[in-house]
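Data card: per-record layout.
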Amino acid sequence: MASETDHSLGEAVAARIERRWATLSIVIVGVLVGMATYIGIHQATMPQGRVETADPKTLHLSGEFVESNLGSEMQADGSVTVRAIGQQYSFTPQCIVVPAETPITFRATSADVVHGFLIEGTNINTMLVPGYVTDLPVRFKAPGDHVMPCQEFCGIGHQGMWGKVKVVDKAAFRDMAAAKRRLTCVD
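The structure for this 187-residue chain is written out next.
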């Protein structure tokens, strides 16, 4: 009889422990669903403060992203604005020159499909969506070269879609910018 009592006591303990774990699991799932609901509602009622659009059909013909306006440009306040376009299967410009220790704003868009804009060795990682302008403020700490692959599958030639970001000394960049309004690595 002692073994039957021990057995029923063990079953009761196991059932109590299972109920506690089941309750804990349900509470965790409930909290996660609540968080997802709150974030979904909050994002629906609080959209981004500023969304810029660009017509992908006319990017190269007029406006901010014409070919003569692409590359790095020194602003009057000393900051740098970089304009670029992603298209199957390249970035324009292919190589971007920026100064170290300077506020930089990348303004980029896509001419055709969604492309990834990733600069290796940094925390810069965003998407270029046709019809929308990506505005990304960054700062590079030191000179060096960074590979810029497309990390969003954009078609059969995706694996060959690479660019380069060349970070140079601030003084060297200023000298280059004095000689030419728009800069790329091939200048």
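Known properties of this structure: The two ends are 93 Å apart (CA to CA). The chain is about 30% helix and 30% strand.

See the next section for split statistics.
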